[in-house]
Amino acid sequence: MEKQNEVHNEENLNEQIKVRYEKLRELQAKGKDPFQITKFEVTGYSEQIHKNFETLENSETAVAGRLMAKRDMGKASFIHIQDKEGKIQSYVRKDELGEEAYAEFKRYDIGDIVGIKGLIFRTQKGEISIRAKEVTLLSKSLKVLPEKYHGLKDTELRYRQRYVDLIVNPEVKDTFIKRSLIIREMRNFLDNRGYIEVETPVLHSIAGGAAARPFITHHNALDIDMYMRVAPELKLKRLIVGGFDRVYEIGRVFRNEGMSVRHNPEFTILELYEAYADYHDIMNLTEEVIRHAAMKVIGTAVVEYNGITIDLEKPFERLTMVDAVKKYASVDFDEVADLEAAKSLAKEHHINYENHHGKGDILNLFFEKYVEEHLIQPTFIMDHPVEISPLSKRKPSNPDYTERFELFIVGREHANAFSELNDPVDQRGRFMHQEELRAAGDDEANAIDEDFLNALEYGMPPTGGLGIGVDRLVMLLTNSYSIRDVLLFPTMKPLSE
Predict the structure, then answer these.
(1) Residue 444 DSSP class
(2) Cβ–Cβ under 8 Å, residues 382 and 348
(3) Which domains does the chain have, with CATH numbers?
(4) Is residue 485 pLDDT above 90, yes or no?
(5) Cβ contacts of residue 3 below 8 Å, gap of 6+?
(6) What would the pLDDT profile of 419-451 be if each residue is shown by its tens digit?
(7) CA angle 305, 310, 314 (to 5 degrees)
(8) At CA 486, angle to CA 308 and CA 113, rounded to 5?
(9) What's the mean pLDDT in 215-243?
(10) What is the C-alpha separation between 102 and 76, in angstroms, rounded?
(11) Is the Cβ–Cβ distance between 461 and 275 less than 8 Å?
(12) What per-residue confidence (pLDDT) applies to 394?
């Protein structure tokens, strides 16, 4: 029976589409093709009219938007149109438009885009409306809008046809407006701190700047393989060498990895570098920029995410990775004598490691298994082992660890930062270790970037650097479960033919 209903509904839908095409042909035959209209002068918007009704009452306006509801009362109709700000009602009367124009108006369909000129007034029932003097069909909708566009069975379709999702689900549009505002406020914050926004190449001749598998493409004119950037880091550091003391970039990066509710192969990152600063300075800045964005866009730094109250207002907790593993796994890596002892501990705790892993790698595996899920409130995890931090400066007091932090909120990494490694000799040694890992089969390891080493040899000042995952921050501040909910056009598997 359910299958029969689906077939019946599809047949009805196809019939409605045929009717819409026929209506278009009739209009074109009369010389009234809506697609020939090139302009409509809009002077008012729904929210603006509602907010300022007391001063706008009885004044003329011209609004335009998508026809979302229509109630026919014979010689008069009530319609709702949806514009960029929301919805507004219009009262359309036959004696105001004229018989022919009203007859054409009555053949408009839900989804059509119309322009309305008329007077702003309040109906007897108290609804702010526009008394139409003129209604113009600006674009014909040839497809039928879905009546219900929610529910798990429609999730994939919502992502694939975001344009429809935005039409019928106003809260989705609100998420993307907030996304834009969050990015704007991050920019404002950094601009006011004396940072300069720059752009660096997306195509790289060497993959580097993060432990990630790159996308590979080919440049025909140069006949060389190139890589979509996995991070802008090494280019931005060159600018610090060149004398820009504070730089940032907000842009797309590309990582040829798995997809999940928190991973998309292309995503947006904010990356910044500040000369003469260390990772403690960058920790303070990270707190401030996130708090600033929350306050400006959401209006509060205490937000709800997936039923949990997240407090971005109070100082974020700070834990070393060693202390975090000690707290949640009851294993103290300060007491682990060497690599063999670390491997023995991993076996006891059923943690799989690879032959090339060092003691620091195994510490990180313990962290991933036992700690991450507990880091719900904002927490800086500091002082990562050198094995997993090829671009970070060593801690002078303990050179097996680095001046690095990651910010975790709701069990997810939201930011990664270093006191940047500026010693070209140490950096070459780290790159060479990465090359060994690549040779051993690790396709996420960095390649040696000789030009970057050359830049470091000219001298880079002590520098703090930061990367913030913009998409995950937007997820947090808009209470969005999946990264696809904050990407207008997420990567999707192609539909089978």
Answers:
(1) T
(2) no
(3) 2-139 (2.40.50.140), 167-316+377-486 (3.30.930.10)
(4) yes
(5) none
(6) 999 999 999 998 898 888 888 777 777 788 999
(7) 160
(8) 125
(9) 96
(10) 9
(11) yes
(12) 95
